[in-house]
Amino acid sequence: MSLALNQAALLAQSPQTSAAVASPPETLVAYDFGRTSLPEPFVPQPFRLKAKATGSRAKAKPGFEFDNRPTLRLGESFRIGLRARLQGDARDRSQAFTRDESAFELAKRRIGIQGELFNRISFELEREIASNHPWRDVFGDVKILKSLQVQIGRFKMPFSAEQLTSIVELPFIERSLVASILAPGRDTGIMMHGRAGGRRLGYQIGLFRQDGDAARRGSPEGAGQTVAGRLTTSAGVKHLSLGVGATSGWVPEGLNGLPGRTSDGFRFFEPVYVKGRRLRVGAEAGWHHDRYQVDAEWLQLRDERRGQGLGDLDLSDAVAKGWYVSGAGFVYRGTRRPSGRRPFFDRGTGDFELAARIEQIDFGSAGHGDLPFRQPRAEHLFESRVRAATLGVNWHLNRWVKMLSDLSRESFSYPERRPHTNRDHEWRWAIRLQWAM
């Protein structure tokens, strides 16, 4: 004990030694060779090395990492990761498939990259393999201030929470009819976004070349240059998200109204003649807990019909509107880890999830004074409505692989626009095996 005290006293008297002790320690980098969440045969040897800084000011060492995806990192200034997605669907329905349809298909085959430069610039490129319209997301995002970022390129327009959520993250095989039909989808443009008010208010506002590829699906032309915006807030409540959104553009004269179609392409409402302003409005709410989630949306689209009546009279707006309410929760789940859900291959059975959704979408017109007609220039358009209910059972094998199964019932109000002439509803069943990283 006395020897230790004498050594401490000598160290205290030496100025060089005391300065050395006061100086911060050198940054050291250690490598963790412990077990990863993937089984050893599936992990390439270079990806098993993961830098772990031991100093408070440690810098990331250049090299490969594998957490959710292969990633190349060059210090703190550059990071680029590989993204890939493969989805295979098997489907059936109460009406027999035609010769042009298949009960099994590869729904998505995508590959892309996602990266970051100097903690200021992020970018993403994603491409669909073997598609007539291969490019999906192609954009760069620059952080100018803490509350201001600018995104430019091709990406999803800021409208509808479900449309903005990746299909990989949804608890259903297909998006709701409302989000699939009324939301604009992707287009080329520039957008300012960020969070303000102590990060309680999120905003997105952008200018786009057109009103999205989803709006032009099955229609000759959608709207031209379009402004889109969205506001979100938690209202100070944990797990809660509230939002509103809108888009505004100009639709050229012609048979360019929005068609109504189901997920398999069946048309239950044909386009009508329109000309003028196309306006979308929407409201959304969500409660996302660690174990369950509840979501709801209401969306509406209105197309003006200037000079589309007899004698160039203005007709009442063509209106499409709808809503959905959905919920999902894990009925069994293994112990969560920081890197993701419990792996199927690591002494676990995976996670089981139940989901349910009800929805409705209506097509018609704002005018209701006259008798309804089915002609595309009628003042009062004959209303067509679809209601649907979906039940889903999902199995998360691990963080990359998921199996989904959905059972849906769709009912149609338009007698001449039904898949079956002798009944007003149709059952659909689908199962999807999904791999994504």
Could you walk me through the main structural features you see in this protein, from its secondary elements to its overall organization?
By secondary structure, the protein is mainly β. The chain folds into two domains: 21-66, no CATH class; 81-436, Beta Barrel (Porin), CATH 2.40.160.10. Helix content is 7%, strand content 50%. It has helices spanning 2-13, 15-22, 161-164, 177-182, and strands at residues 29-31, 51-53, 63-66, 70-74, 78-93, 104-117, 121-128, 135-145, 148-156, 186-196, 201-208, 226-233, 240-254, 260-261, 267-269, 274-288, 292-305, 315-332, 351-365, 384-396, 401-412, 425-436. Strands 5-6-7-8-9-10-11-12-13-16-17-18-19-20-21-22 form a 16-stranded antiparallel beta barrel. Strands 1-2 form a two-stranded antiparallel ribbon. Strand 6 (104-117) and strand 7 (121-128) form a beta hairpin. The relative contact order is 0.11.
List the helices and strands and how they pair.
Blueprint (H helix, E strand, L loop, with lengths): L1 H12 L1 H8 L6 E3 L19 E3 L9 E4 L3 E5 L3 E16 L10 E14 L3 E8 L6 E11 L2 E9 L4 H4 L12 H6 L3 E11 L4 E8 L17 E8 L6 E15 L5 E2 L5 E3 L4 E15 L3 E14 L9 E18 L18 E15 L18 E13 L4 E12 L12 E12 L1
CATH class of the largest domain: Mainly Beta
* Largest β sheet strand count, sense and barrel closure: 16 strands, antiparallel, barrel
What is the overall number of helices?
4
Rg (C-alpha, Å) = 27 Å
Strand content: over 45%
Physical arrangement of strands within the biggest beta sheet? 5-6-7-8-9-10-11-12-13-16-17-18-19-20-21-22
Output the CATH homologous superfamily of the largest domain. Answer: Porin
Ends distance? 58 Å
Query: Low-confidence stretches at least 5 residues in length (pLDDT < 50)?
Result: 1-58, 335-342
| Count of discrete domains | 2
CATH architecture of the largest domain: Beta Barrel
CATH topology group of the largest domain: Porin
**What is the string of helix and strand elements?**
HHEEEEEEEEEHHEEEEEEEEEEEEE
Helix content: under 10%
Described by the principal axes of the CA atoms, the overall outline is: globular
Structural class, from secondary structure content?
A: mainly beta
Number of strands: 22
Please, what is the average pLDDT? 82
- Work out the oligomeric state of the chains in this entry: single chain
